[in-house]
Amino acid sequence: MESQNYSMVSEFILLGLTEVRELQICLSVFFSIIYAAIVLGNLTIILIVKLDSQLHSPMYFLLANLSFIDMSLASFATPKMICNLISEQKTISYNGCMAQMFFLHLLGGSEMMLLVSMAIDRYIAICKPLHYKSIMTYRVCIGLALFSWTSGFVHTTSQMVFTVTLPFCGPNEVDSFFCDLPRVIKLSCTDTYLLELLVIAFSGVLSLFCFIFLFISYSIILISVQHHSSSGSSKALSTLSAHITVVVLFFGPCIFIYVWPFSSISIDKILSVFYTIFTPLLNPIIYTFRNKDMKKAIRKIKTTFVNSRLIF
């Protein structure tokens, strides 16, 4: 309560990606198309997994959860960014800024743990195939999904509980297109050194450790794949390559931004765009067009839909 009495900032100004008006208009159109594709692509995956009984397996259950998180991750800031690109007023309220940071780290932390869960699923499927069905039960899948969301909630709460008490009584310009902890807490008119270390510890180190764990896990899986038949290896390698691509695209920018979060390098903006917008778009492309089961399910649903239209 005391911090709120001397906190004078009621809104923040998001400087965005560029100050050139013509470029802002072009970017608003571009990102509107990208955002529509993200929502459509990830919703398609969720619906296909739900409608096709052949995809009612642990891998696709986790994939549907990943699509939901990706769609949400793109939605926490992209619509606001698009509005700011075409608007003269590029502000966000104090509560809106805090909400953006909360959901960013909730969804980001949840996706990290979900990608770890997906790696565990692939490890069991490839390295212990005879025990896969007995280990990866429906209850275990639900548990992994709940664990991912719980981890994300603990991850964001552990940082936001300190951030919301900071006094903001000076500059209010955030050099980004959304509010993020490294950019916002340095605007506080108090010493934030310990909080900066906390951000590095919780976001940067968590990203780095998860990436190392996933790298080791997929290395073990790839070695194990070599001992399978050629047909099985081909399918496994196709699935693994999709998982590894997603991991690299998601964790690369996160590690760069949060392990060295207080640098003034402008490339941080590009990396932020990459993991909050482009990665959620690439996921459905990677998992849909590189996965034979997904393509088969799409064709089957399209055929069923066309036949039902012809009947009526």
Give a description of the structure.
This protein is mostly helical and 312 residues long. Helices cover 76% and strands 3% of the residues. The protein has a 3-stranded mixed sheet with strand order 2-1-3. 36% of the residues are buried. It has a single domain (2-311), classed as Up-down Bundle (Rhopdopsin 7-helix transmembrane proteins), CATH 1.20.1070.
Summarize the structure.
The protein has one domain (2-311): Up-down Bundle (Rhopdopsin 7-helix transmembrane proteins).
Which strand order spans the largest sheet, edge to edge or round the barrel? 2-1-3
- Tell me the distance between the termini: 64 Å
Helical/strand content category: mainly alpha
Quick one: overall form? Answer: globular
Task: Tell me the CATH superfamily.
Answer: Rhodopsin 7-helix transmembrane proteins
